Amino acid sequence: MLPDLTIVIGGAASGKSDYAERLVREASDQRLYIATAQAWDDEMRVKIQAHQDARAADGWRTVETPMDPAKALTAMASDEVALLDCATMWLTNQILSEGDLDTAKHALFDGLSQAPGRVVIVTNEVGAGIVPENALARRFREAQGRLNRDLAERAGLVVTVIAGLPLVLKGTLP
Prior knowledge:
By secondary structure, the protein is α/β, with parallel strands linked by helices. The chain is built from six helices and seven strands, in the order βαβαβαβααβαββ. Helix 3 (about 70-75) packs parallel to helix 5 and helix 4 packs across helix 6. The chain is globular. The N and C termini lie close together (about 5 Å). Belongs to the CobU/CobP family. GO terms for molecular function: adenosylcobinamide kinase activity; ATP binding; cobinamide phosphate guanylyltransferase activity; GTP binding. It is an enzyme of class 2 (transferase).
């Protein structure tokens, strides 16, 4: 059985979302997909639509919430397993909105602690590359690193995915 909170972390196109979806599918027939992406351009609109179509065909209940996933987390059923995909898009949305990031993180963590069901969160590892050349990118990288550490501290299971292969960093796979 999955713990209350599982984190799946990896680089871009590492297979982390596919792996996280598989964990949730194996854990429950009652699946909630909490999507945080926003369609800023045509490419992203096509990608989001493809994901929506695939989830609908696979029996997921989906909540699109780019800014406030805590509401979906606290409203989920106790027999559901939620997949929040992804914390990186949520963080991007928060930073670009120029809102109070500490308040938003506090709300997210409150939502996680009050979620009646189990939660799997996908997030990107962005700290393995070079130092970004601009201030916004450096701010984002630092905020993502802090968010990932805070999530991992709260999680019972943390799995990194590299080239589609999972490696447990914390906890034990069910």
